[in-house]
Prior knowledge:
The chain is an alpha+beta fold.
Amino acid sequence: MTGLQVLDAPEGTLIAGYTVEQWLGAGSCGVVYRARRGREVVALKLQSLEHLGGWAGREVAILLRLSHRNVVGFRDTGLHPVDAPEWRYLAMEYVHGRPLAQWLEEENPDAHGVARLALGLARGLEAAHAAQVLHRDIKESNVVVREEDGTPVLLDFGVGDYTGAPLLSHEALPPGTPRYRSPEALTFSRAWPLGRYQPTRGDDLYALGVVLHGMLTGRPPFPDAESPEGVDAVIHQPPASPLEHNARVPEALAAVCLRLLDKRPDARGSATALCAALEACLSSSGEAGWQVPLRDATTPGAPPAPAEPRTCPVAGLAEDSNDAAAPRMRRRAPSLVVHAPLAWRRPQSRALAHTVAMMGVGMSLAGGLWWAGTWRPSLGATGLGGLALERARDTPGQPAPRGPAAPDQASDLQR
Length: 415
Ligand SMILES: Nc1ncnc2c1ncn2[C@@H]1O[C@H](COP(=O)(O)OP(=O)(O)O)[C@@H](O)[C@H]1O
Ligand SMILES: [Mg+2]
């Protein structure tokens, strides 16, 4: 195995004709750089083919189905390097802006600002659902707020689903992030740990409810949602109204949030209904109370939530590294990296790079052979040993051990 998880591509690295300019962020399944080709600036996401198997193409397949101002736009895709592909690259519209958590922390918006932002997300979700796409990982780090006009843009459909998508996950729950799991998903995984839950639009709406709750109060509706007690609470206890945590939240907006967090998926309505409810909120937002920042200017924001790992389709980076707790633009790649060969870097250094690269390739090959023979058997101890197994599980075409369908899982998407 050569590829690990993240391609460390310093500024100037050439990838499929794009010149890397800046590190933008990394999550559990890839790394994203701002890159340029001529005058075109894109966000370039790189995912390891070996590591992610079929999942590496999922986001491309989904973005090709979507075109909406609140959903990141598709530009280009391919394999890299061409002669011996190790990575899938996905070039997307570059959204110049801030991740949602950082935006909230720095802007301290009023209720009107939060409702406007939630409406943008609801519209993006409405477009996805209309195209038979589920996002399945709605959370703050998968939203960037555009600097120019404050438009929220939904990113990272990497573990999403669409009608007719190949089956890649055979776990009880698909990849996702624990804190944003719906009560029905958690109920299912407890009752049928060997089954396979089929998420619905209701799961996306619930996750959006968790995000809205955080925007209004600075905290999730159920703290500690990963512990067994926390899971109990998500399944059985009604969430506290955002008003109980923050008296500045207008009642109408608190009601919208509570509706999204309802235990009954049907009671959450649809993304379209959510848009209508938020538009109604905005039309009454001239009233007193809607223009007051949701926290005191002097009060620092709630401490940023700990980075929330998503259960990556394969053992991957543990967490999103662009949350409010992390420096906005990291200069350093995460620890498990594959360095871009010098040959991919700036044209002016090509001659030297070529020579060095050839030497490097030779040394790498020799080193790789030595490594394969010497260390590979011990990888299990470092947590990488599960990769082969995970990849085998994710190989399209392998029979999926399907579990019983839960009675209330009338999935609105086929898989
Ligand atoms: N199109 C984009 N424009 C600007 N920033 C982006 C874009 N796509 C991703 N990013 C940044 O990179 C981070 C990681 O991207 P993401 O697609 O969420 O990767 P992962 O699937 O690994 O979680 C995001 O949280 C965001 O901050
Ligand atoms: Mg992400």
